[in-house]
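Bump. Still looking for Histidine biosynthesis bifunctional protein HisIE structure tokens.
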Amino acid sequence: MINPDTLDFAKGNGLIPAIVQDADTLQVLTLAYMDRAALDETIASGEATFFSRSRGGRWRKGETSGNRLTVVSITPDCDGDALVLAVRPMGPACHLGTTSCFGTETSPGVGRIAALERTIAERAAADPETSWTARLMAQGPKRAAQKVGEEGVETALAGAAGPDEEVASEAADLVYHLLVLLRSRHMVFQDVLDVLARRAQPAKDTDGSGAMPD
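Sorry for the wait, here they are.
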């Protein structure tokens, strides 16, 4: 995951700041500090453990509240004196009960896509009699694909002649059903983003000159 020996703890008098970020929504959850022992424990346990400056000792997030942070990755900055922890939170990250210590909004911006994926995953296990998501998932990918087609047409019609509010509403329905389709195919939206990332790579020239093709 990371080699602690490559980090510069001395610059911060034995502590390194750790930015904690939701691995799925990319929302910044909190800023904490780690000494070498806290980092070693984090690596060994797979749960975020910090050094509390107010308590003067080690502190595993969620010991009291149960709102633990499962660590997905730990990435140092270019100088090796700061870290980014990508985590999957098991509840609010802030002691005030909010998702993040920075503001009260949950999964802002495109992070709402990942948050919606989590909701779909949770509701997929619900009773199909009470949950549309569970009922749609139970009918399989073909039914979900049909709904994507229907919502795509409705979005296109709204885009051609409807007001902005209608376009946004129909597009929201389309995105929701697309995520259900991906879930039913055991896929996630990141699979789509990976394709877009590959397509965004600069095209290679074919004549060896270094010039981009026309």
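Residues 141-161 form the longest helix (21 residues).

Edit: fixed formatting.
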